[in-house]
Write a structure and sequence with these properties.
single chain; 167 residues; alpha/beta; Arc Repressor Mutant, subunit A; three-stranded mixed β-sheet; 3 helices; 25% helix; globular
Length: 167
């Protein structure tokens, strides 16, 4: 029996999770599923410019595991672009980390991300109701949470990063 998969640390939840070729109806498209942890690997390596060793440490995985993750992600992205498939970002074995993302694990580390969304009805800060704050994980700027608007859809007024839910 294989060892259980180690949860990868993810610090960024994408605002947009579906990409498709222009002019093609969604019902005619095949999808390439890019997991949230694969998305994070691409973000760290290709967008933020970290080398594989640094990026692996940020995700709490080994460098060879990071290499396999980035290789898989790039293959899926290339396949979708070359063959005209849609790209859907969902699932994977990951844990959201950062300012105010829950308290599972006794600190700033939050729930297990398997699929979309938070922890469900009355399940903690991802479903925390009308009160609380939205906090920038980059600069710490706080704004009051507005009911009906998820914090991750808001951009920080100071630095432009997506906000996360705080208490």
């Amino acid at each position: 029996m294989p060892r259980p998969r180690r949860l990868r640390r993810v610090r960024f939840r994408p605002d947009v999770t579906f990409f498709k070729p222009m002019g093609v109806k969604e019902s005619y498209l095949e999808e390439s599923i890019l997991t949230v942890d694969e998305f994070e690997a691409v973000r760290l390596k290709d967008m933020d410019g970290f080398d594989q060793e640094e990026a692996a440490k940020k995700m709490n995985i080994s460098q060879p595991t990071f290499h396999r993750l980035i290789k898989s992600a790039r293959k899926k992205i290339a396949d979708a672009i070359v063959k005209g498939k849609a790209i859907k970002i969902e699932g994977g074995a990951y844990r959201m980390v950062g300012f105010g993302i829950g308290t599972a694990g006794g600190g700033s580390e939050g729930g297990v991300g398997r699929g979309r969304g938070g922890r469900g009805r009355m399940g903690g800060p991802f479903a925390a109701g009308p009160g609380g704050f939205c906090i920038c994980p980059n600069c710490g700027h706080r704004v009051s949470h507005q009911a009906g608007i998820p914090c991750y859809q808001l951009k920080c007024e100071k630095c432009g990063n997506p906000m996360v839910r705080g208490r």
